[in-house]
Amino acid sequence: MSAAESGANKIFIGLLGYGTVGSNVYNLIQDQAVEIAQATGATIVIKKILVRDITVPRQDAPAGLFTDNFGDILDDADITVVVELIGGIEPAFDYITSALEKGKAVVTANKQLLSQQGFYLFRLAREKETQIRFEASVAGAIPVIRVLRESMVAADLTSVYGIVNGTTNYILTEMRRTGAKYQDALANAQEWGYAEADPTEDINGNDAAAKMAILASMAFHTAVVLDDVACIGIEHISALDISYARNLDLTIKLLGVAKLYDNKINVRVYPALLKKDHPLASVSGAYNAVFLKGNSIDEIMLSGPGAGGMETASAVVSDIVSIIARGTPGVLEDIAAWRELEFFPDDEVVSKFYLRLEVEDEPGVLATIAQVFGDHDVSVESVIQQGRGAHAELVMVFHPVKEASFREALEKIGELPVVKSIPRPIRVEGDGYEQ
Ligand SMILES: NC(=O)c1ccc[n+]([C@@H]2O[C@H](COP(=O)([O-])OP(=O)(O)OC[C@H]3O[C@@H](n4cnc5c(N)ncnc54)[C@H](OP(=O)(O)O)[C@@H]3O)[C@@H](O)[C@H]2O)c1
Predict the structure, then answer these.
(1) Which of 234, 364, 399, 420 has the most CB atoms less than 10 A away?
(2) Which of 128, 211, 253, 352 is catalytic?
(3) Ligand 1 midpoint to CA 23 (Å)
(4) Cα 201 to Cα 243: distance, rounded to the nearest angstrom
């Protein structure tokens, strides 16, 4: 008789939240009970579920499981694992802290909270000799946190690139595929359920920045918080940029980039142009991917479906299984092994840029602009000039340059009377020049 059938060795769970992810976790645990029992020798029993309003009828889980009082879960000595799927900072932070204080293990999908308070929570878990796991907080069903914490310990990682926001990747893919304008591609993403009614955090890059703070912390064993990650979103990417990029054999992606420069760390999120043959260039639609580079591993890419209710639930259940299978704190909570890296300034990073400029269509304009760039040691790799009515458009790609020099040159270019639009550069990544 299997453990599931005998009911031997039950692990009691308190579920916080029964929304998109919480309800999928509940169902997955019921559906996969036999497989989980075979893998762990234990039966997972969801004993209580916290929601705001217990009078609302819920599907699947029996009404008797629901409570609106967190104390019912915290004070239940049978419950050894608390699964937080409420989201946001409070009361999630308070609930997780209280659970860890009591020595309960915690599983969470809460990227906002981890990107701001992760270090504190890891330390607390360590002090209380328990675990906090959060595979579901980054990249949906892709087991990237597990790979970083267990498989990459000796990889001597130097950079982590992530396409970690499915909404923006879907929008950019549709813009490239159909030639649609940004607003139309966003509306299409909302219609098909790939974007929230309020997609602000996705399109302005904040969601990706929170995930990159978590990934960078895990990859480089140092505390990186959301405020350390500068981000630029995709709102300003135009159909014209997409079409020029295609002509240059480049693809635009919203990239998270975390890199070590001389043992200093730099983490940012920005739209970047990738050569067509770069492994990340082919990650399309709502898919996510994380591309790791390290001295002992060369390059590794993990890709798969991004966050969705079921994918996220699968990552949550995998964390519960890990907790049951391994009762001791993992490498992750061992923050004694972490280090304090300094941050490498954005201005010092060497990048390659693409720039589209609307200019007066008159003789000598290109020479004037090239002169300003030359004065700042910024050299042009290629330029396309195209007439557009009374104006002309210059599409320029530059050789790698220190970002401070490029920004200074751009400020001067923006002041030239012949320049009709504010220049918006896009970085070109993966062209072999990177440090
Ligand atoms: N949805 C996804 O695809 C996805 C993907 C990756 C990560 N995540 C993360 O997963 C977590 C949950 O997301 P979700 O989409 O499942 O959220 P959701 O659908 O909005 O569900 C939230 C649940 O939490 C409950 N809740 C909210 N505030 C509460 C409070 N103060 N006290 C008690 N219960 C409270 C709600 O109760 P009521 O039902 O009574 O309102 C609801 O059941 C978030 O951290 C999110 O970032 C979600």
Answers:
(1) 234
(2) 211
(3) 10
(4) 26
Do residue 202 and residue 261 come from a single domain?
A: yes
How far is ligand 1, taken at its centre, from the CA of residue 310, in Å?
14
- pTM, entire model: 0.90
**Is residue 167 in a domain?**
yes
Give me the domain span that covers residue 123.
3-137
Residues 251/176, Cβ–Cβ less than 8 Å: yes
The pLDDT tens digits for 33-81 are 998 888 888 899 999 999 999 999 999 999 999 999 999 999 999 999 9
* 90 C-beta closer than 6 A to ligand 1: no
Which of residues 118, 137, 156 is at a domain's end? 137
- The answer to whether 212 touches 228, Cβ cutoff 8 Å, is no
User: Residue 90 in 3-state DSSP?
Assistant: coil
Q: Where are the alpha helices (DSSP H) in 192-233?
A: 200-203, 206-220
Cβ–ligand 1 contact at 19 (below 6 Å): yes
Ligand 1 contact via 91 beta carbon (within 6 Å) = yes
pLDDT (tens digit per residue) in 270-304: 999 999 899 999 999 999 999 999 999 999 999 99
Q: How far apart are CA 388 and CA 408, in angstroms?
A: 27
Based on the fold, state whether residues 129 and 157 are members of the same structural domain: no
Whose tokens are 């350390």? That residue is 228
Q: Which residue in the block uniquely carries the two structure tokens 């906002």?
A: 112
Q: Among candidates 49, 81, 90, which has minimal Cα distance to 68?
A: 49
Q: Is 22 in the pocket of ligand 1 (CB under 6 A)?
A: yes
